[in-house]
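Bug report

Summary: structure tokens for LIV-I protein F differ between web form and batch submission.
Environment: batch mode, default settings.
Steps: 1) Submit the sequence below via batch. 2) Compare with the web form result.

Sequence submitted:
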Amino acid sequence: MTLLDDQFSGRSAPGVPPRKSQGGAPAFFSAWDLHAYYGESYIVQGVSFDIREGEILALLGRNGAGKTSTLRAIARMEDPQLKHGEVWLDHKPLHTMKSFQAARQGVGLVPEDRRIIPGLTVQENLELSQIAEPVGWSIERIYEHFPRLAERRSQDAITMSGGEQQMLAVARILARDIKLLLLDEPYEGLAPVIVQEIERILEGVKDLGITTIIVEQNAIAALHLADRAVILDMGEVVFDGSAQEVLDNPQLRQEYLAI
């Protein structure tokens, strides 16, 4: 297990994109000493981690640990406000960008509320995601991988089930040319049978080699999907290591995840 004592060894100085991840391979994504606030509330308190290209990282912790806030800071959303730290993706400094600029660099966020556009069909939601460059998967390729969406292409998207809306939320991101997929609670509120279907879709995303950060209260499901895990507690990193280490360590899971 890699603890805080040695977590920051080998990191680049501010202003220089980190070049190595913990395993010695080039870091495709790096978050360096992130500090973010909602107003005066100090939420993200010095979070740092790297991801290799193609890895899936589970960002875990109890409710209120700062997981979603970290994800939003990486995506360069207006809230929380990132007041210190750096975010690098494929040698590009995301921390200097606004959210729409980060999206153009390949950051794709699937928020917990999914943000399906009411009044538009499934097809129209997908088409709208491809109005601006860069374009990713064709809509027909999306339908091949999401046959249920193909069946409902003419349906008002907001009238679909929660699981189907989650499929559409992921599909809209794949319709863009993404380099980093950010998933916030993809299993939230879904029946177990639908969770299994979403898991199958995410396994397919993993097979495609898309670099991914997944925030999920269903930690066991996320750990089985992920290569690595970072655990947050009170806005700080308390563990950074392999997903298997967390699965094999009941004391760690009980202390920080209550499972």
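Above is the batch result. After comparison, the two runs are identical; trailing whitespace caused the diff. Residues 4-106+179-254 form a domain with the Rossmann fold fold (CATH 3.40.50.300). The two ends are 18 Å apart (CA to CA).
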